[in-house]
Amino acid sequence: MSFDIDVEKKLGDFTVAVAFQAGPGLTALFGPSGAGKTSILNMIAGGLKPARGRIAVDGHVLFDSAQKVDLKPNHRRVGYIFQDARLFPHLSVRGNLVYGYKRPPAEQRYAELDHLTDVLGIGHILERRPASLSGGEQQRVAIGRAILASPRLLLMDEPLASLDDARKQEILPYIERLRDEMRIPMLYVTHDRAEVDRLAAAVVKIGQGRVVKG
Known about the structure:
Radius of gyration: 17 Å
Strand order of the largest sheet: 7-8-9-3-10-11
CATH architecture: 3-Layer(aba) Sandwich
CATH topology: Rossmann fold
Protein backbone atom coordinates (compact mmCIF):
# COMPACT_ATOMS: atom_id res chain seq x y z
CA MET A 1 0.00 0.00 0.00
CA SER A 2 1.11 3.56 -0.66
CA PHE A 3 -0.09 7.04 0.20
CA ASP A 4 0.19 10.27 -1.82
CA ILE A 5 -0.69 13.81 -0.77
CA ASP A 6 -0.31 17.15 -2.53
CA VAL A 7 -2.50 19.81 -0.91
CA GLU A 8 -2.71 23.49 -0.07
CA LYS A 9 -4.90 25.26 2.49
CA LYS A 10 -4.82 28.82 3.84
CA LEU A 11 -5.63 29.08 7.54
CA GLY A 12 -5.81 32.75 8.45
CA ASP A 13 -2.33 34.19 7.89
CA PHE A 14 -0.85 30.68 7.75
CA THR A 15 -0.73 28.47 4.65
CA VAL A 16 -0.16 24.73 4.63
CA ALA A 17 1.22 23.53 1.29
CA VAL A 18 2.77 20.05 1.30
CA ALA A 19 3.46 17.20 -1.08
CA PHE A 20 4.94 13.84 -0.09
CA GLN A 21 4.50 10.08 -0.42
CA ALA A 22 4.59 7.27 2.14
CA GLY A 23 4.72 3.50 1.90
CA PRO A 24 3.78 0.72 4.31
CA GLY A 25 5.13 1.15 7.82
CA LEU A 26 5.40 4.21 10.02
CA THR A 27 6.24 7.63 8.55
CA ALA A 28 6.81 10.41 11.07
CA LEU A 29 5.57 13.94 10.41
CA PHE A 30 8.18 15.67 12.52
CA GLY A 31 8.36 19.33 13.40
CA PRO A 32 7.66 21.95 16.06
CA SER A 33 4.24 22.74 17.47
CA GLY A 34 2.31 25.04 15.14
CA ALA A 35 4.08 23.77 12.00
CA GLY A 36 0.83 22.51 10.45
CA LYS A 37 1.17 18.78 11.16
CA THR A 38 -2.31 18.28 12.64
CA SER A 39 -3.88 20.34 9.83
CA ILE A 40 -2.30 17.90 7.36
CA LEU A 41 -3.89 14.95 9.19
CA ASN A 42 -7.25 16.70 9.27
CA MET A 43 -7.15 17.25 5.50
CA ILE A 44 -6.39 13.56 5.00
CA ALA A 45 -9.19 12.48 7.36
CA GLY A 46 -11.72 14.80 5.74
CA GLY A 47 -12.27 17.19 8.62
CA LEU A 48 -10.53 20.05 6.80
CA LYS A 49 -11.03 20.62 3.05
CA PRO A 50 -7.94 21.65 1.05
CA ALA A 51 -8.23 24.61 -1.28
CA ARG A 52 -6.62 22.50 -3.97
CA GLY A 53 -4.77 19.23 -4.40
CA ARG A 54 -5.09 15.49 -4.33
CA ILE A 55 -5.03 12.76 -1.66
CA ALA A 56 -4.93 9.06 -2.54
CA VAL A 57 -4.31 5.85 -0.60
CA ASP A 58 -3.30 2.73 -2.51
CA GLY A 59 -4.80 4.17 -5.67
CA HIS A 60 -8.10 5.12 -4.00
CA VAL A 61 -8.71 8.85 -4.41
CA LEU A 62 -9.99 10.53 -1.23
CA PHE A 63 -9.78 14.10 -2.51
CA ASP A 64 -9.06 15.64 -5.89
CA SER A 65 -9.94 19.28 -6.47
CA ALA A 66 -9.48 19.03 -10.24
CA GLN A 67 -11.79 16.02 -10.51
CA LYS A 68 -14.17 17.37 -7.83
CA VAL A 69 -13.72 14.29 -5.62
CA ASP A 70 -14.20 14.84 -1.88
CA LEU A 71 -15.17 11.67 -0.02
CA LYS A 72 -16.98 12.06 3.27
CA PRO A 73 -14.84 11.16 6.31
CA ASN A 74 -16.76 7.95 7.00
CA HIS A 75 -16.11 6.77 3.42
CA ARG A 76 -12.35 7.35 3.46
CA ARG A 77 -11.34 4.29 5.51
CA VAL A 78 -8.85 6.36 7.47
CA GLY A 79 -8.16 5.51 11.12
CA TYR A 80 -7.43 8.46 13.43
CA ILE A 81 -5.83 8.22 16.88
CA PHE A 82 -5.74 11.40 18.94
CA GLN A 83 -3.69 12.58 21.93
CA ASP A 84 -6.56 11.55 24.21
CA ALA A 85 -8.15 8.13 23.78
CA ARG A 86 -11.76 9.35 23.23
CA LEU A 87 -13.23 6.00 24.20
CA PHE A 88 -16.97 5.52 24.71
CA PRO A 89 -17.27 5.64 28.53
CA HIS A 90 -20.53 3.67 28.63
CA LEU A 91 -19.02 0.71 26.76
CA SER A 92 -16.57 -1.89 28.00
CA VAL A 93 -13.19 -2.30 26.32
CA ARG A 94 -14.71 -5.13 24.29
CA GLY A 95 -17.64 -2.89 23.31
CA ASN A 96 -15.28 -0.14 22.14
CA LEU A 97 -13.28 -2.62 20.08
CA VAL A 98 -16.35 -4.27 18.56
CA TYR A 99 -17.65 -0.82 17.58
CA GLY A 100 -14.56 -0.41 15.39
CA TYR A 101 -14.82 -3.95 14.03
CA LYS A 102 -18.45 -3.53 12.94
CA ARG A 103 -17.85 -0.31 11.00
CA PRO A 104 -16.52 -1.72 7.68
CA PRO A 105 -18.41 -4.22 5.51
CA ALA A 106 -17.30 -7.80 6.12
CA GLU A 107 -15.48 -8.02 2.76
CA GLN A 108 -13.24 -5.05 3.70
CA ARG A 109 -12.12 -6.38 7.07
CA TYR A 110 -8.56 -7.53 7.52
CA ALA A 111 -8.09 -7.02 11.28
CA GLU A 112 -9.40 -9.53 13.83
CA LEU A 113 -10.31 -8.92 17.46
CA ASP A 114 -8.39 -11.82 19.01
CA HIS A 115 -5.19 -11.00 17.13
CA LEU A 116 -5.33 -7.28 17.96
CA THR A 117 -5.97 -7.87 21.65
CA ASP A 118 -2.89 -10.09 21.68
CA VAL A 119 -0.72 -7.60 19.77
CA LEU A 120 -1.79 -4.76 22.06
CA GLY A 121 -1.75 -6.77 25.29
CA ILE A 122 -5.32 -5.88 26.27
CA GLY A 123 -6.97 -9.31 26.39
CA HIS A 124 -7.15 -9.21 30.21
CA ILE A 125 -9.09 -5.91 30.36
CA LEU A 126 -11.85 -6.60 27.83
CA GLU A 127 -14.70 -6.43 30.35
CA ARG A 128 -13.51 -3.25 32.09
CA ARG A 129 -14.80 0.27 31.47
CA PRO A 130 -12.47 3.04 30.24
CA ALA A 131 -12.65 4.98 33.52
CA SER A 132 -10.90 2.10 35.31
CA LEU A 133 -7.96 1.98 32.88
CA SER A 134 -4.59 3.69 33.00
CA GLY A 135 -3.76 6.27 30.35
CA GLY A 136 -1.55 3.78 28.53
CA GLU A 137 -4.27 1.12 28.55
CA GLN A 138 -6.85 3.59 27.25
CA GLN A 139 -4.57 4.58 24.38
CA ARG A 140 -3.91 0.94 23.45
CA VAL A 141 -7.67 0.35 23.31
CA ALA A 142 -8.08 3.45 21.12
CA ILE A 143 -5.41 2.13 18.76
CA GLY A 144 -7.14 -1.26 18.66
CA ARG A 145 -10.53 0.29 17.91
CA ALA A 146 -9.07 2.30 15.03
CA ILE A 147 -7.28 -0.68 13.48
CA LEU A 148 -10.26 -3.01 13.85
CA ALA A 149 -12.11 -0.69 11.47
CA SER A 150 -9.59 -2.03 8.87
CA PRO A 151 -8.42 1.37 7.60
CA ARG A 152 -6.32 1.84 4.48
CA LEU A 153 -4.29 4.46 6.37
CA LEU A 154 -3.71 5.08 10.08
CA LEU A 155 -3.19 8.63 11.38
CA MET A 156 -1.66 9.11 14.84
CA ASP A 157 -1.63 12.66 16.21
CA GLU A 158 0.93 12.75 19.04
CA PRO A 159 -0.64 9.67 20.65
CA LEU A 160 1.86 9.69 23.54
CA ALA A 161 1.79 13.43 24.30
CA SER A 162 -0.66 13.12 27.21
CA LEU A 163 1.23 10.25 28.88
CA ASP A 164 4.02 10.45 31.44
CA ASP A 165 7.38 8.87 30.66
CA ALA A 166 6.52 5.56 32.34
CA ARG A 167 3.31 5.18 30.30
CA LYS A 168 5.16 6.17 27.12
CA GLN A 169 7.70 3.40 27.68
CA GLU A 170 4.81 1.01 28.30
CA ILE A 171 3.06 1.72 24.99
CA LEU A 172 6.03 2.20 22.63
CA PRO A 173 6.68 -1.56 22.20
CA TYR A 174 3.05 -2.06 21.15
CA ILE A 175 3.33 0.66 18.49
CA GLU A 176 6.54 -0.98 17.27
CA ARG A 177 4.79 -4.33 16.96
CA LEU A 178 1.91 -2.76 15.03
CA ARG A 179 4.38 -1.04 12.73
CA ASP A 180 6.09 -4.35 12.02
CA GLU A 181 2.92 -6.44 11.56
CA MET A 182 0.51 -4.07 9.80
CA ARG A 183 1.09 -3.58 6.08
CA ILE A 184 -0.61 -0.20 5.86
CA PRO A 185 0.84 3.33 5.84
CA MET A 186 0.92 4.99 9.25
CA LEU A 187 1.44 8.75 9.60
CA TYR A 188 2.68 9.59 13.08
CA VAL A 189 2.75 13.24 14.16
CA THR A 190 5.30 14.17 16.81
CA HIS A 191 7.80 16.82 17.83
CA ASP A 192 9.71 14.29 19.96
CA ARG A 193 12.98 13.29 18.29
CA ALA A 194 13.33 10.17 20.46
CA GLU A 195 9.98 8.82 19.21
CA VAL A 196 11.05 9.49 15.61
CA ASP A 197 14.37 7.68 16.08
CA ARG A 198 12.70 4.67 17.67
CA LEU A 199 9.59 4.27 15.51
CA ALA A 200 9.93 5.85 12.08
CA ALA A 201 10.88 4.02 8.89
CA ALA A 202 10.73 7.38 7.10
CA VAL A 203 10.58 11.01 8.23
CA VAL A 204 8.85 14.00 6.65
CA LYS A 205 10.02 17.22 8.32
CA ILE A 206 7.38 19.94 8.52
CA GLY A 207 8.12 23.60 9.21
CA GLN A 208 5.87 26.63 8.71
CA GLY A 209 3.36 24.56 6.75
CA ARG A 210 5.95 23.23 4.29
CA VAL A 211 8.02 20.09 3.82
CA VAL A 212 11.55 20.90 4.95
CA LYS A 213 14.33 19.29 2.93
CA GLY A 214 17.40 17.85 4.64
